[in-house]
Amino acid sequence: MNLLQSWLESLDYEYRILPSCTHYQSPRSSCRECIDQCPEQAIILKDGKPFIDTVKCTQCSQCIVACPVQAVEGFLPKRTVENNQLIVSNEDVISLKELLVYYQKQVTTIVFKHEDVSDEWQHMIKNANEALSELGEAAFAIQFNKAVEETEQTMTRKELFSFWKKDVKNIAKEMAPAKWRFNQESLNLTKYYPDHQFIEFSLDTSTCTLCKACEILCPKACIHLTDTHFTVAPEQCSNCSLCEDICPEQAISITSKISPVTPINYLLQENECTSCEENFKTLDEAEHMCHACRKKNELSFYNRN
Ligand code: SF4
Ligand code: SF4
Ligand code: SF4
C-alpha cells in the first residue's frame, strides 16, 4: 500500500478554478477568498476571473478550504489524524473552517508536538473554541506529545482509499490522476451544522424590487421568491456575498455571525399603483407606486434638475 501511496503522491496534477466560482456567475462578484488566502500570491484575477499560476502554486490547498462555493479543484490539505486526534506543528496553522469540519468528524483533540504553541495557533484555538461555544459544542481538548511521529496515514488519504475501495472498478476503467481529486463539498461547513447559521441576512424591504436576481444567482439555493413570499434559508448560506454584490438596489446585507437557525420569511403585498393604476407586488406596504413608475418619476426628476 505504501508504494501505491507514494506513487499517488508523486502524480503531477494542477489545481484549477471551476466555473462554479462566483466570478463566472457575475462580473460584479467581489469574492477574493482564494486570492487573499494564497500564501504564494499564486492566484490573480485575469479578465475578471481568478486564475492559478501553476508555477507559483505549491499546492498547499488553502484556496480549496477558503472558497465559499467549493470552486477550487485539487487535493484537500494533508493532515495527520490518529485515534481521532489531529496532530499539528507550529508551522502549519489550520483554518477555523477546517477545524470546525474536523470537529464534526469526531476529531475533537488537537495534539501539539511542542509545548511552545505559536501565537497564531493560540489565536486560532481561541477562535475555534468561541465558535464551538456558539454552536453549542464543547471546546477542543489540547494535548502535547513530543514523542508523536509523523505518520504517512492521514485523513485525506484514508478518504481516498475508502473511496478507491468502493469504486475500484470504475477507477480502473477511467484511471487518470484527475479522477482522484477529492470532493470539495466535504468542506461545505454549513452541512455539518444544520441547526445553525453562519451569517446574518438582512433585506431592505423598502428598496427590493423583487427582480429575482439574487434567487437566480445564489449558488446554494437559499433564496426563494414565490407569488406570496420572499424566503431565505440562512442555514444553507456559505457567505459568498454574491447576492449582496449583484442586487441592483443594494437591498441585501450579509454579515458573519453564528446563531441558531432562524428562517426568514417576508410576506408580499399586492397594491394598486397610484400612477398607472396596475396592481403590483411589493414587500413594503407603504409603497403605492410600482417599480416602473417610480423609476420613471426618478428619471424625470433628475432630468429637470
Ligand atoms: S474563493 Fe471561490 S468563489 Fe471566491 S474567487 Fe476564489 S474560486 Fe471564486
Ligand atoms: S433583493 Fe435585490 S436582487 Fe433580490 S429580488 Fe430584491 S432587488 Fe432583486
Ligand atoms: S444567500 Fe447570498 S451569500 Fe448566501 S450563498 Fe446565497 S448568494 Fe451567497
UniProtKB/TrEMBL annotation:
Keywords: 4Fe-4S, Iron, Iron-sulfur, Metal-binding. It comes from the Bacteria. Residues 48-78, 199-227, 228-257 form the 4Fe-4S ferredoxin-type domain. The keyword 4Fe-4S applies. InterPro entries: 4Fe4S_Fe-S-bd, 4Fe4S_Fe_S_CS, Fe-S_Ferredoxin. The keyword Transmembrane helix does not apply. One of its GO terms (molecular function) is 4 iron, 4 sulfur cluster binding. This is Ferredoxin. It comes from Sporosarcina pasteurii (Bacillus pasteurii).
